[in-house]
């Protein structure tokens, strides 16, 4: 719990006694000046390291005004290392403890200075560009990725990159960071015993040290420093707008990440496939009240953002040229086991030794079978989870499409009603002018020009603007639906293949039955989700029918106006009509009276 007290409160000021800006904020954990760097790391970041090592994405970023201690929290000092150093130490420790898995660690380190990206590990490469691949993932073109084998190598590269960061003194902070720094550590893991098909898991850890928001009145910046501050505040404003939009459940469906390169790089961290920790920094000084309040407001909103996290797993098929290497490794393993068996048979107690070897082989086979079952079960559960996530996403997109359709019909109805009402008013004015004016043609021309120059009501203008936005939203939604449907079909085929492999890969009848039960549970979950989708579809159909009924009422009223207008013209000009037409008009009049008796709108 953080309590923000208003430094301007005066107990003797009776007029402003009830205008206090005191506010309370609740967060997952808070730290005061007595907490160490280790306390902050253990409570915020340590839990993410095993997830990164097993193939998930994670992001930690420091947020707050200039001089609040963000760089100290992320980098630290030699005596008090920050989150970056401690996270990398624990990451390599986690990899050393799992000897059955082969890891590959690469890292890149960049800064965003004045909305330009610079490679801190290779500063001579100049300014780099952001690109998007076919899947919409943002990549930095030309960024150097360095392979690291130990914590010491990573620390050396981190120190080298920090020396290249842009830092300048200001009135508010003697060592002010003038850029945003992003350290990306990529961990790829695979099983040491290679097979024809290899599962590769890729985890990414993003450690972000943001530049602090600043006010020119406090920093006394001039010239180049003021330009830097403007770029910093602009990118932080874009970040704040994204946080506001993501935390608002009733907000816009489209989140504008393109206002800044910082938000484009942090797109997944804010609302995508990533476990994210935001560490907000504030100052206890009374002069920093507004900055502290703004930081706490954004942190409180960010707390309500929900991300959809899934493991990054790819299946890699080795090329035929690599099969010989795999076969050679297996032959070496067979030769080693044969040599070991021969050594045991040459001992005095040959029978006992053979039994021991057989027991060891059986035990090894049992452990291998258990590991295969566990691995296969995990693959099956991961496939089920991915398929259910895709189905839920598709259901949400279908619901969004139905909402867009209803909103489009509603706005079209508003515009149609306005056009009918406008035509009715114009007709009434023309009739009045024809009756009262001596110069009907001139009056008609004046009235027509007045009607044409009349501005549309605000609700009609809003309806037209919303129709444009809804058209764009519909196009984007349909495009995303097509992509999700393709991914769902791929996931469904993968699950089907895994189910077919159960009798082949699993020899135990009990384990086969357990896996078949898991498949049955998955089918029941799919049926439940399809039931939810059908319920949403029925609700949409009911609402759509209501909209159709409203349109029919509108069309019927328009027909009534046309019939009355034509009847009036016939009566005024004493035109002769056929008996059939007169009979139809009598039937129409009786139906109108019947509708009035029933209370319908005519």
Automatic annotation (TrEMBL):
Pfam families, sorted: Kinesin
Location relative to the cell: Cytoplasm, Cytoskeleton
Family as reported in the entry's similarity comment: Belongs to the TRAFAC class myosin-kinesin ATPase superfamily. Kinesin family.
UniProt cross-references to PANTHER family, sorted A to Z: CENTROMERE PROTEIN E, KINESIN-LIKE PROTEIN KIF19 ISOFORM X1
Spans annotated as Disordered: 427-457
Statement: the UniProt record of this protein carries the keyword ATP-binding: yes
Main location: cytoplasm
Positions that bind ATP: 64-71
Top-level taxonomic group: Eukaryota
Record's compositionally biased regions (Basic and acidic residues): 427-441
Start and end residues of each Kinesin motor domain: 1-305
SUPFAM superfamilies: P-loop containing nucleoside triphosphate hydrolases
Span of the signal peptide: none
One GO process term, biological-process aspect: microtubule-based movement
Single GO MF descriptor: ATP binding
GO cellular component terms, A-Z: microtubule
Keywords from the UniProt entry: ATP-binding, Coiled coil, Cytoplasm, Cytoskeleton, Microtubule, Motor protein, Nucleotide-binding
Record-given protein name: Kinesin-like protein
The keyword Amino-acid biosynthesis is assigned to this record: no
Source organism of the structure: Candidula unifasciata
């Amino acid at each position: 719990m953080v309590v923000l007290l208003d430094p301007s409160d005066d107990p003797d000021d009776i007029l402003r006694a009830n205008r206090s800006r005191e506010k309370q904020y609740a967060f997952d954990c808070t730290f005061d000046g007595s907490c160490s760097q280790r306390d902050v790391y253990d409570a915020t970041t340590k839990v993410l390291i095993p997830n990164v090592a097993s193939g998930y994405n994670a992001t930690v970023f420091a947020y707050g005004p200039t001089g609040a201690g963000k760089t100290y929290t992320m980098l630290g000092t030699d005596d008090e290392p920050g989150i970056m150093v401690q996270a990398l130490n624990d990451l390599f420790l986690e990899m050393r403890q799992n000897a059955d898995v082969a890891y590959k660690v690469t890292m890149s380190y960049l800064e965003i200075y004045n909305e330009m990206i610079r490679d801190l590990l290779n500063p001579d490469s100049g300014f780099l560009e952001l690109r998007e691949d076919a899947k919409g993932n943002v990549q930095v073109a030309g960024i150097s990725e360095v392979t690291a084998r130990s914590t010491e190598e990573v620390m050396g590269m981190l120190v080298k990159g920090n020396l290249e960061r842009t830092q300048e003194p200001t009135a508010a902070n003697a060592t002010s960071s003038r850029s945003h720094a992003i350290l990306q550590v990529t961990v790829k893991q695979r099983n040491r015993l290679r097979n024809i098909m290899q599962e590769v898991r890729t985890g990414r850890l993003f450690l972000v040290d943001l530049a602090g928001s600043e006010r020119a009145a406090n920093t006394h910046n001039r010239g180049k420093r003021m330009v830097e501050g403007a770029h910093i505040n602009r990118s932080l404003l874009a970040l704040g707008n994204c946080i506001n939009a993501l935390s608002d459940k009733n907000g816009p469906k489209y989140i504008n990440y393109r206002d800044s390169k910082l938000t484009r790089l942090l797109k997944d961290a804010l609302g995508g496939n990533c476990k994210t920790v935001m560490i907000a920094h504030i100052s206890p000084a009374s002069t920093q009240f507004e900055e502290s309040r703004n930081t706490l407001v954004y942190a409180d909103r960010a707390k309500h953002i929900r991300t959809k996290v899934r493991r990054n797993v790819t299946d890699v098929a080795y090329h035929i040229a690599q099969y010989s290497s795999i076969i050679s490794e297996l032959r070496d393993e067979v030769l080693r086991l044969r040599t070991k068996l021969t050594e045991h048979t040459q001992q005095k107690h040959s029978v006992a030794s053979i039994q021991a070897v057989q027991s060891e082989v059986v035990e090894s086979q049992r452990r291998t079978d258990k590991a295969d079952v566990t691995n296969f079960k995990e693959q099956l559960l991961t496939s089920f989870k991915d398929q259910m996530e895709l189905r839920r996403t598709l259901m949400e997109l279908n619901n969004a499409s139905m909402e867009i359709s209803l909103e489009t019909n509603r706005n079209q109805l508003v515009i149609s009603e306005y056009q009918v009402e406008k035509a009715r008013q114009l007709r009434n004015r023309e009739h009045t002018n024809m009756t009262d004016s001596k110069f009907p043609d001139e009056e008609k021309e004046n009235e027509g020009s007045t009607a044409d120059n009349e501005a549309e009501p605000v609700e009609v203008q809003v309806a037209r603007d919303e129709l444009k936005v809804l058209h764009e939203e519909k196009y984007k939604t349909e495009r995303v639906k097509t992509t999700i449907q393709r991914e769902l079909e791929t996931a469904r085929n993968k699950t089907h293949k895994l189910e077919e492999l159960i009798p082949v890969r699993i020899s135990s009848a009990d384990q086969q039955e357990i896996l078949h039960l898991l498949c049955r549970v998955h089918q029941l979950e799919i049926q439940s989700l399809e039931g939810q989708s059908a319920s949403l579809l029925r609700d949409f159909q009911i609402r759509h029918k209501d909209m159709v009924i409203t349109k029919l009422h509108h069309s019927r009223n328009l027909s009534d106006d046309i019939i009355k207008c034509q009847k009036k013209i016939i009566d005024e000009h004493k035109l002769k009509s056929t008996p059939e037409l007169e009979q139809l008009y009598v039937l129409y009049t009786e139906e109108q009276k019947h509708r009035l008796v029933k209370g319908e709108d005519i």
